Amino acid sequence: MHKKPSVFGGACIIASVCVGAGMLGLPASGAGAWTIWSSLAMILTMVVMTFSGWLLLEAYQDFDPRVSFSTVTKNVLGQEINWINNMAVYFVGSILLYAYTTSSGSILNDLMSPIVSLGEYGSRIWSAIFVLVFSFFVWHSTRLVDRISVVLIFLMLATFFMSSYGLVGNIDVTTLFDIHAKNSQYAPYAIAMLPVALTSFGYHHSVASMRAYYQEENKAKYAILGGTFIALVFYLIWIIGIFGSLPREQFPAIIAKGGEVGDLLNALSGIIESESIKKTINLFATFAILSSFIGVGLGVFDFLADFFHIDNSRVGRTKSWAITFLPPLILSICYPLGFLKAIGYAGAIATIWTCIIPAMLVYKMRQTQGKRAFRVWGGTPLLYIVLIFGVLVFIFHFMAMFNYLPVFKE
């Protein structure tokens, strides 16, 4: 008799999918909102994104356990909507690869400059080296990615806890709650944080895997809830640790440079006296970016190989590698916009397949199929809440981009 998989195990899988390099953008994106309003934005996003994942479970229940997101969308909403959905999935994956490539170059350049100085193009050169070295794991095989990912997740979690412990021990309550604030506005800035917050809970491509893992919807439902809650705890600890250590007035300079992870780490280095904590935070950032880069890279690689019907030979995998990694690398070298902007774009477009499509799928299926065995609580009002949240986050990103939302400058 086979032992049934535990809900906790599935929750850990969902949490590991959520927690990654995206959390490195949270402090800069939430600096205007600061501790309380950033935390509220994260809690709201976690709740909505949990419900949207449950909606996908409801939509999947009449299909084979190993069905894909694309197949369900095509069957229920049609080929045109499915094409938009697939393009959104590809765009988010590619923009995340672009963000990780850009940030890796910045971090590696700072780390290696005392040893090897590459001048004004140092970050771009290190970005190219990073991609060429670490994309090899994806080109080689999924099995190798699996093995290296386990190691990276362990290292990321270990350095996260060590970093958080050091940061929490360094917290100044005056700094954490911005008691001597020059700018006492917080709530308006929370709106602009939502696209980055949404990216931090982007696990929806794994919902089908959870259903196949448990062979039922109810256990998958609680695994998703457990996973998003674990991720939320990680994010709140990270936000509180950073905001309790680094004064709010130091963030405008970081944001002005594009919210680069390297600039955040350099600012922390100027505040934290312990060399071991500084090194651990740098290691955590490196492992988080590398883990996310390889994980997202594999997803985009497999998506494009399937989309273009490229075979799994060495030549075929080289073609898939080229169309997966070279466009983000070229964009990173030519247009290094910054980590925060890229994550914001990813969050805006991700609303399509994390909020809008799940609500549309369930609405259509409830209209045509009536009462079903697994049904998410909340009825039609919940569908509208998830849909409207997705649309608003999409709009908020472009409002911020065109300066229709307040930008934290001082």
TrEMBL record:
GO annotation, cellular component aspect: plasma membrane
Alphabetized InterPro entries for the sequence: Amino_acid_transport_2 (IPR018227), Trp_tyr_transpt (IPR013059)
Record carries keyword Iron-sulfur: no
Top-level taxon in the UniProt lineage: Bacteria
Membrane topology, from the record: Multi-pass membrane protein
Subcellular location: Cell inner membrane
Segments traversing the membrane: 7-28, 34-57, 83-101, 121-139, 148-166, 186-203, 223-243, 283-308, 320-338, 344-363, 383-405
Keywords, sorted A to Z: Amino-acid transport, Cell inner membrane, Cell membrane, Membrane, Transmembrane, Transmembrane helix, Transport
GO MF term (any one): aromatic amino acid transmembrane transporter activity
One GO biological process term: amino acid transmembrane transport
Family assignment from sequence similarity: Belongs to the amino acid/polyamine transporter 2 family. Mtr/TnaB/TyrP permease subfamily.
Function of the protein: Involved in transporting aromatic amino acids across the cytoplasmic membrane.
PANTHER family linked: LOW AFFINITY TRYPTOPHAN PERMEASE-RELATED
Name by which UniProt lists this protein: Aromatic amino acid permease
